[in-house]
Amino acid sequence: MAGQPDKSATDPTAPDGPLVARAAAGDAGAFRVLVERHERRIVALLHRLCGCPEQALDLAQETFLSAHRHLGSFRHESRFSTWLHAIAVNHARAAGRRRRPTASLQMAAADGRPLIAEPAADLPPVSAGLEREELARRIATALDRLDARYREVVVLADMQDASYEEIAETLDIPVGTVRSRLHRGRTELRALLSTP
Question: Does 111 share its domain with 191?
Answer without folding.
Answer: yes
